[in-house]
Amino acid sequence: MRRAxxxxxxxxxxxxxxxxxxxxxxxxxxxxxETEPPERPERRATGALLGEEGGYGWRWRVPSGIKRLRxxxxxxxxxxxxxxxxxxxxxxxHNENRYSLLELSPVERGVLTLFGVRSGLFIAxxxxxxxxxxxNFNDECKFKENLLANNYNAYESAAYPGMYIGLSKTGKxxxxxxxxxxxxxxxxxxxx
Length: 192
Prior knowledge:
Blueprint: E1 2-5, E2 19-20, E3 32-35, E4 68-74, E5 80-84, E6 90-93, E7 102-108, E8 111-116, E9 121-125, E10 131-134, E11 142-147, E12 153-157, E13 166-167, E14 173-174, E15 188-191
Antiparallel strand pairs: 1-2, 1-3, 4-5, 4-7, 4-15, 5-6, 7-8, 8-9, 8-11, 9-10, 11-12, 13-14
C-alpha cells in the first residue's frame, strides 16, 4: 500500500515530491491518504455469474480477460471478412466495414467469444451448425481458437465439437458440420 501526499506542489516540504513512503509526512498542514495500487487487469475478478440480473451490460456477465478488437479475414474466393449484421445474420464481406469489427474475448483457456462491436451481437452456432447473431451470451457463443500450421486460426464450436466457422467462396456462411479444419474456408486471420 502506498501513501499519496494530499498537498504536492511547489510549497510542499515533503522530500518525496508527491508520493510518500511509509513514514508519515512531518510538514504542517499536510494530510496523507492511503491509496490502493491500481488494479491490474490480469488480477481482476471475473464478472458476475450468468443469469444474474442487475441491468449491467454483457461485459459483466462474461469472465473478463484481455479483449482484442480484430477483423477475421478468410482467404477464400476473393477474400472475405466475417461480419455480424444487426438483424442477426452472419456473412462475409469483401471490404472492411463497421459490422466486420469483432471483439475477441477469452472466456477460459483456449475458448473465446466473438462479439460484433457495431451490431451488439455475439456470433453463435446452433446445434445444426448454422451461424447466427445472438443478443444473449450462452454456450453456443463459445468457440475454441485453434492455431493452424499456416498461421491461420480455425474456430471450433465449444458447445458442438467438430463444427467450425466457415465461409464459402461467395461469402456465405457454411454449416459447421459440413466443413473441417483442413478446408481453407475455415482458416481465418485475425487482422487489426
